[in-house]
Amino acid sequence: xxxxxxxxxxxxxxxWIRGRRDPAYRxxxxxxxxxxxxxxxxxxxxxxxxxxxxxxxxxxLIRAIKRVIPDVPFLVTTTTPTGSVEVRKHLxxxxxxxxCPYDFPKAVRRFMDSVEPRALVLMETExxxxxxxxxxRRNVPVYLVNARLSERSATGYQxxxxxxGSVLTNMTHIxxxxxxxxxxxxxxxVEREILSVTGSVKFDLQFPPDIDSRRAEFENNWQLGxxxxxxxxxxxxxxxxxLQAHKRLLQQHHDLSLILVPRHPxxxxxVVRLAKTYGFDVAALSSDPKPADVLVGDEMGxxxxxxxxxxxAFVGGSLDDTGGHNPIExxxxxxxxxxxxxxxxxxxxxxxxxxxxxxxxxxxVDDLTNCVDxxxxxxxxxxxxxxxxxxxxxxxxxxxERVSTDLSRRLVG
Length: 413
Description:
Layout: H1 2-21, E1 45-48, H2 52-68, E2 74-78, H3 81-91, E3 96-99, H4 105-115, E4 119-123, H5 129-137, E5 142-147, H6 151-159, H7 161-168, E6 173-176, H8 179-187, E7 195-197, H9 211-221, E8 227-234, H10 238-249, E9 256-262, H11 268-277, E10 282-284, E11 294-296, H12 303-306, E12 312-315, H13 328-331, E13 337-339, H14 347-355, E14 359-361, H15 365-376, H16 379-395, H17 399-412
Parallel strand pairs: 1-2, 1-4, 2-3, 4-5, 5-6, 6-7, 8-9, 8-12, 9-11, 10-11, 12-13, 13-14
Helix pairs in contact: 2-3, 2-17, 10-15
């Protein structure tokens, strides 16, 4: 309790600083302290999805469960504004939505007093000690879905045995992506009886219904090169590597354009400025179409459409210490993929694509340039790798059905 009171001013300061870069962080700040709209229903099934990626993974699961219990209200909370946008975009009025309270005892109790959750479903490995303990105190079951626990995270949890031990023993059931995660949870003291291995729900990703019309709109409006490669979900430092590679690639492929999509859209202006320092003609996706060597994606939720325009894809967050982002969004388009060496967030997923020969490693600008160049020069290789990528996705679908069937049974019971 004392630590929470001491930390609160610093958390509020961090929120204010982030709000300077992204004004959306300044909105609805009261919700982060548990002051939620009075219109929210009670006795909700509460899904917490953090940000955009977790939200997209949760959407088909939420809809599958709602078909079984249509009369029960659902509340989806997020931590980031991007997650909030995705909830409203994909689920609209099907669910209620607000920000998740910060993990401070008073904020958590205030929030739970308002919505009285009947169950909490956490996506991936969002383990908030005060939220989980308060659920246990109120006899609210807690389910962890699409759980992934890397070796590095498990080691960190072991150092916090007193804290994480009590959190993990309060879980009702954990649906793990793969066996390695289940084994790591078991090593931390979780009973095997509450562990299931279901695969990754992200393999169940489907094309948006407007994918064809959006692709046609993009092709008709934008004046890019005849050939395109893309770098998606990039972070600071990665854009420099990608732009250097693009400059070299243009020496061999004169009709080549780059689509560069930073992970966080508020950084788009920074990325536009950076690209101009390399002498490129640069445009932002939200601007009026014009000829461009580099197109910077600055709109949330567009990456899955932009992958469709590319012949080769680099997946970001993998050249820094982020741990890599989801390659499945590129794979469903049948695009050969490249990632940096840090893929810990999607280790098991990446291994499946690597084993199929459609995902490559690039440690630096030389590797990235050579790999993209080789793929651009070999249409047959791109076709083979694209088919392999789609096949990996197809072979690993089904997690949504497995989880929703079991979780619906538990929620009904």
